């Protein structure tokens, strides 16, 4: 299998990759700052890190506890 990265449309993928990284960073920072979350506490870290794009969004919508 020969993958040539020169053929990848980086102009289209770069904004999506950057947005995903920003969401992951924001969700992880919020997770660390929150003392309590909704649901199982250790469950959120793998979800944020390994479920691309939807994991951080799910945490920010459902995992945060309103104060």
From TrEMBL:
One of its GO terms (cellular component) is plasma membrane. Residues 22-64 form the Cardiolipin synthase N-terminal domain. It comes from the Bacteria. It is a multi-pass membrane protein. The chain crosses the membrane at residues 12-31, 43-62. This is Cardiolipin synthase N-terminal domain-containing protein. It comes from Shouchella clausii (Alkalihalobacillus clausii). InterPro entries: CLS_N. It holds the Pfam family PLDc_N.
